[in-house]
Amino acid sequence: MDQIAYGGDYNPEQWPEEVWTTDVALMREAGVNLVSVGIFAWAMLEPAPGEYEFGWLDRNLDLLHAAGIAVDLATPTAAPPPWFLRRHPEAAPITRDGVRLGGGARQSFCPSSPAYAAASAGITEQLARRYAGHPALVLWHSHNEYGGVNAFCYCATSGAAFRNWLRDRYGDLGKLNEAWGSTFWSHRFGDWDEIEPPIAAPTTVNPAQELDFFRFSSDAHLANFRRERDILHRLAPGVPVTTNFMLANCKNIDYWKWSTEVDVVSNDHYLQAERADNHIELAMCADLTRSVAHGRPWLLMEHSTNAVNWQPRNLAKGPGEMRRNSMQHLARGADGILFFQWRASRFGAEKFHSAMLPHGGTGTRTWREVVELGAELGGLAELRDSRVTAEVALLWDWESWWGLELPWRPSQDLSFRDRQEAFYEPLWRAHRTVDFAHPEAALGAYPLVVAPSSYLLTPGAADNLRRYVAGGGTLLVSYFSGIVDAHDAVHPGGYPGALRDLLGLVVEEFEPLAAGRTIGLDDGRTADTWAERLELRGATALARYADGPAAGLPAITRHGYGAGQAFYVSTRLTPGGTAALLAEVSAAAGLAATDLPADVEVVRRRSGTAEYLIAINHGQHTAVVPGAGVELLTGDPVAGGLPVPAGSVRVLRCGS
Ligand code: GAL
Fold first, then answer.
1. How far apart are CA 156 and CA 112, in angstroms?
2. Is residue 416 a contact partner of residue 400, using CB atoms and an 8 Å limit?
3. Whose CA is nearest to atom 12 of ligand 1?
4. Given a cut of 90, is residue 248 above it in pLDDT?
5. Is 254 a residue whose pLDDT tops 80?
6. How far is it, in rounded angstroms, from Cα 586 to Cα 475?
7. Which of 145, 369, 532, 601 is catalytic?
8. Does the pTM exceed 0.85?
9. Rounded Cα–Cα distance for residues 214 and 222 (Å)
10. CA of 238 to the centre of ligand 1 (A)
11. Catalytic residue among 281, 302, 369, 631
């Protein structure tokens, strides 16, 4: 596309055809240039098995094309029609507790079901054959949020598929027994058929089995995606295929593995409405999306113009908030801003979800803001394909997330997202641009790497971190990192087995703290949740515990290693304490402090010789961001600083 993509999910099947003409006229008024069509339309496209009705979709796509609106055409496979489960009752998903889930919702299918594979391939093939050459088609939207509500299935078919997956992974049962530590609690398997998914059991199930079931389940969804993608590539060569991810908020899918499978990364993000700093969480998700896209431009496939309908209290967005949200995604590398959905549904489970065109129609604030945003994005086409460069990498690994939060850890207060956000937020406030990286990824380009909660760390990842630091990098590791390998087995030789030499210390004992307990450090910082008894073997103490179970022992350390340095923080500092620590570590990494105004988000996108600065003011007062060039939203020349009014956004093409 030669524009920033703008639009949303469009469900014409919910409306009489006469409404479509109005839809298209209003889309043009709003500057919409891309819509995702037919995501949940399977029952209308294939009303009975093998019987197809494409006439309505033909007419709809033709109408869109005539209006110059491009189409992201969906395979409707996230919502099998009622006939599917009636015909294939065995394809219903079964929960861990053995409950068979019914239809009447969406994603009611077992991800390993052969019947689902056949039916979804069937409709995908029909769509690909019919619409491959349609002039409106620019992108395929496979399925919708794979694993969103049916991440795991524990039925007999899934059990058999799990065993096949394990056979592929381990080859022989002896290797599996060893990897799973199956001498524990008499888990040794004598036959593959003795292995089940981790269904509800009298007590905690083997954690290695749990981890492999996470991996298997993510792969089962990936296999479904690949099947559709391959059909689409074969029958519609040249048309890219995407599927909408749920980055940062979906624990169950290992998106690093998916990142190279899609032609374009796209993501759905919904604000946590009741959270005061929800724009920082948005920025984190956007940065994670860009990172999963390996720095390439990505699409915001869904967000909301206003309130959603599925949170406990669905707060409306304030004036200008939707614009700020959209521009944050754009700033962080999105080349398209789309919404769920175009026109608010009159019926069904999502009728109280906002849309570009609300129930109240064009007389609403939402509509006016949608039209204004469309006009603004229309003037920002030159930003397409420009890239964001980050100076800090946060390690993010779904496998570690899975492992960290399995039952029977030293404390139930250990949380993957908590640590990620704890480090992301002060970096955001310090105006640092952050990438997320897999622990085995190349890190050499980053002056600073932070490992917020790398509980599971393979020997390969540990080597990677050693190489990074030895080569001159600065690493900050937080507590309970480097503890286990890929099978949740403790690295031998004392904690943190994978990182002892790099950090220059040994953790002799974990000291989780009682709920509500706070402890002090000798530099005045306070902490809660967790402490450790550290024994230094080369590292120096930067701060010690002033009280609590590890009183007098080091709490924060630094270790020179090769040409670089590794910092360790063994407790859960307050947000202020974490911010101060990050400031010290950033300075040690050679990152200059910025003098940008507080609460103003400033991100740069670069392409060739052009540089764009996007400034979003989340605060209450006008702030001036240093810079000179041309303000693209107004066309005004800027010299000596860019004023950004409270709640507003400015986009500067830098250079005088
Ligand atoms: C998404 C989903 C959409 C819609 C939206 C509502 O997770 O993909 O179909 O349900 O949530 O917020």
1. 10
2. yes
3. 308
4. no
5. yes
6. 10
7. 145
8. yes
9. 12
10. 28
11. 302
